[in-house]
Structures are given as structure tokens and as C-alpha cells.
Specification:
Strand 2, helix 2 and strand 3 form a beta-alpha-beta unit. The longest helix is centred in the first third of the chain and has 12 residues. It is built from three helices and four strands, in the order βαβαβαβ. The chain has a four-stranded parallel β-sheet with strand order 3-2-1-4. With about 70 residues, the chain is of the alpha/beta class. The protein starts with a strand and ends in a 6-residue tail after the last strand.
């Protein structure tokens, strides 16, 4: 299963980290996040991080919009 997060802040990072601890491959997660610093943090978790929705295509099997993400 592939998961795409729209917004890659603290909540998405916590979910990705929690999934990884339960054995889900973080590489199955993509986060759309406009801030380069936050994208860098996501990649340290093993997730794919992109700046725009267009870069994330095709979207995952599950799409999660976090909070007030404006991407």
C-alpha cells in the first residue's frame, strides 16, 4: 500500500514514524510539503518528500490531508 500525505509537518512525520515502528516501509509514504527544511526531515524518516502535488503523481492508495495544508 502507498500513502500520500498532503502536508508533511509534525503530524505526518509522527504518523510515518509510527507506521515504520509497526513494520510499514516508510518508503511507501510520500509527503507533499512546500518547505525544503521539512522535506529534508521527512527523507530522514525514509519517506519520499516532494514540493508539489504534481510531483507526487500518481497519488497513493490512501491520501491523507493534514490540517490546513495549502499545497
Amino acid at each position: 500500500m502507498k500513502i500520500t500525505f498532503i502536508g508533511g509537518g509534525n503530524m505526518a512525520q509522527a504518523i510515518i514514524g509510527g507506521l515504520a515502528k509497526q513494520g510499514f516501509a516508510a518508503s511507501g509514504c510520500t509527503a507533499v510539503e512546500p518547505l525544503a527544511e521539512t522535506r529534508a526531515r521527512l527523507t530522514t524518516l525514509g519517506a519520499r518528500a516532494v514540493a508539489s502535488v504534481a510531483e507526487a503523481l500518481p497519488l497513493g492508495d490512501v491520501v491523507v490531508k493534514i490540517g490546513r495544508a495549502h499545497v
